[in-house]
Amino acid sequence: MIEIWAHWPRWIAAVLTVFSVLLASHPSASQSLQPSGWDAEIRLPEAPDLNPDPRVVEIEMEARVATVELAPGLAAEAWTYNGLLPGPLIRVNVGDRLIVRFTNSLPDSTTIHWHGLRIPIEMDGVPGYSQAPVEPGASFTYDFVVPDAGIYWYHPHVMSAAQVGFGLYGAFLVEDPDEDVGVSDDLVVLLSDIELTEDGVLESPNTGGSTGMAFGREGNHVLVNGKKFPSLTARSGAPQRWRVINAAKSRYFKLAFDTGEARRFKKIGGDGGLLEYSVELDQVVLGAGERADVIVVPTAEPASHLTVVSLLHDRGYGSTELRDTSELIDITMADMPVYRSGPLPELRRNIVPFSTTGATPVKLDLTLSQDPLDKSFQYGINGVPFWDATPVLANLGETQLWTVENTTPWSHPLHLHGFFFLVLDENGQPVRPLEWKDTVDIPFEETRQLVVQFDDDRPGTWIFHCHILDHAGGGLLNAVHLGLPEEVFKPMAAH
Ligand SMILES: [Cu+2]
């Protein structure tokens, strides 16, 4: 593709590129209802598409250390993609081919994992399981077709607690041009945090030793699209669609408005696109790695403010003491007449659950043990950390029914690479509406049942792990060994 284009006059490519950018930035004819510049402070920059083919998005990504401004007067040297924290928003249409020319300019090896995307194993970005680590100064080209609409994200899978904690993550939006949710203004909202010392430099990823690992280290600066408490301007009564991503390495977010009435969330989608039907919620809880697609209708007097906050969420022992609600987004109400919107369309999606008849039962206990001598903690699955684990075996096309029991005093958002699953059961209660998930919170001392069907054409060693990345590094990780002879599997120290 590139070779062909190299022979074309440059101006043709340039004109076509501009044209495709114009088309891409106006997916529907509907007009913005918000004041101009409403999202200027908060909107994520997008990765420029260097490929003139409208169905191919080609971008350059460089992981490098760079100084970023987190708030007025608060700059920090972080690990970034293209000098940005978060990295650039990747925006593609479902079915597009994405090419990422990636260069590692960090002082450490790294990879990119495309969280939630159902792509071939060679593109999954897990060193030792699906690709070699990209060494400092080296490059790697990721190249795959994007199969499903939804909101996803990307991050490294080498020493991920450290590298994600240092700032390496970005949003990945896959749009379906035929989908109309009746809202013209949208925003990608990436939530994260970062741990800085009093001197404003990155804190060691090993603070608190084994106990810090067992809890899951949270950053001391909560960020929304890389900023502390950014602002947006809104017209009262006008709906906005937010795709929210929890990219924090440990922290849960429980989104709420500071004042309750008529400021609820209409959740229309989750990890893997739209829900079976939408639900109205007062709060949206996201464990690390999870996403939500919500419609909000900020409603308040002109020139007043609303605050989106994260309420305390009990994720286990010690997680709510000595902590406060976090302020996430300041919404300044524009001095405009209230918009009187009609009812939003009722969204329905036909989600047919995988049949559990004949599904292979798999029981997974999430476990925590303590060394009797040095008292250090170690996570495991069925009592075994990943470095001693034997994989879950699966045949191509097989359906498995996983019963995941969390026996530990902390919650674990469990992420399966490469496949969607459906959560069927919360402590014995059926879960509705159905939602395609790749990450599900398993609250402390609770059990979840989920059904997954492995494709018949993507064999490989697909890992699953807690997305509290300290927990993954502390042992809470294993793999599904799909459609390969058992002897191929070699447990590696990758996390
Ligand atoms: Cu965990």
Task: Describe this entry's structure for a reader.
- It is a single chain.
- Mean pLDDT is 91; it is low at 1-29.
- The strands form 6 sheets. Strands 20, 21, 23, 25, 26, 27 and 29 form a 7-stranded mixed β-sheet that branches. This protein has a 6-stranded mixed β-sheet with strand order 10-9-12-17-14-15, with no helix packed on it. The protein has a 5-stranded mixed β-sheet with strand order 11-19-18-13-16, with no helix packed on it.
- The chain has 5 helices and 31 strands.
- The chain is 8% helix and 39% strand.
- It has helices at residues 2-6, 10-25, 160-165, 209-215, 469-473; strands at residues 56-71, 74-81, 90-93, 97-104, 113-115, 139-145, 150-155, 170-175, 186-194, 221-224, 231-234, 240-246, 253-257, 265-270, 273-281, 284-286, 291-296, 305-310, 326-333, 360-370, 377-381, 392-394, 399-406, 412-416, 421-426, 429-430, 436-437, 439-442, 447-453, 460-466, 477-482.
- The protein is mainly beta.
Quick tags:
Immunoglobulin-like, binds copper (II) ion, seven-stranded mixed beta sheet, disordered N terminus, 3 domains, mainly beta, 495 residues, 5 helices, six-stranded mixed beta sheet
Q: What's the assembly state of these chains?
A: single chain
What compounds are bound to the protein? copper (II) ion
Uncertain runs with pLDDT below 50, 5 residues or more?
1-29
Number of helices, counting only DSSP H or I runs of 4 residues or more: 5
